[in-house]
Amino acid sequence: TNRPPLTSTRPPPTRTPRPRTNTDLCTLTSYDAILTDHRGNICVLAGRFYYNLNETNPVPRKAIAKWPGLPAKVDAGFTYRDSKTYFYKGDQYWKYSGLRLEQGYPRPLSQAFPGIPPSVDAILLAKSGGFHAFKGPQYWYYDIGKQKPVEWYYPKAIDDGLGGFPKKLDAALVTGEGRRFVFAGLRYLEVGDDNKVIGRMRDVRKDWFNCA
């Protein structure tokens, strides 16, 4: 995929935009999750389908063919540092080793991530090894290493704790290179390891989907 610039002062590399079709990424008005899979491919999930942004011309493929047992319209997804991939939907989660659904899944979200609410909007991995879960105008932090319930002072308002973030997220992503992005509709921001915003809001379709 066309990698967004490190700062707002360096424009993305120019590529020839792809012609649109009725299944093209450029026709998407919404999506469910954006994540890096266990091989480092950046995937956009929308309904029953996913697009691999590392392909020259991403086409829709059935998500269940890549991740057996995965439901349509997931809430969020991420691949952890141990190459395990997690998907959340409602009050359940799915865990994959590579592309294989581990035995006994889906399981209740509360079993593995106590204190994280159901039906989250996005999950943003932190350099510390935990993650921030976003739902509406609020967020929670879960420490995967400690595996303890979320601290009592969560949730916090995004406006209070993460200044500059969109008031509501649709997805979040950490690339294989460790760059971190948050998405709100068809706009996105890059954020640093300290959750400080880098640059300005940019266009998802132009920078990630390679649309005209």
From TrEMBL:
SUPFAM superfamilies in the record: Hemopexin-like domain (SSF50923)
UniProt repeat feature Hemopexin, residue ranges: 71-116, 117-165
GO CC, any one term: extracellular space
Chain spans, region Disordered: 1-22
Keyword line: Glycoprotein, Repeat, Secreted, Signal
Xref: InterPro entries: Heme_transport/Cell_adhesion, Hemopexin-like_dom, Hemopexin-like_dom_sf, Hemopexin-like_repeat
Protein's cellular compartments: Secreted
Signal peptide as annotated in the record: none
Name of the protein in its database record: 72 kDa type IV collagenase
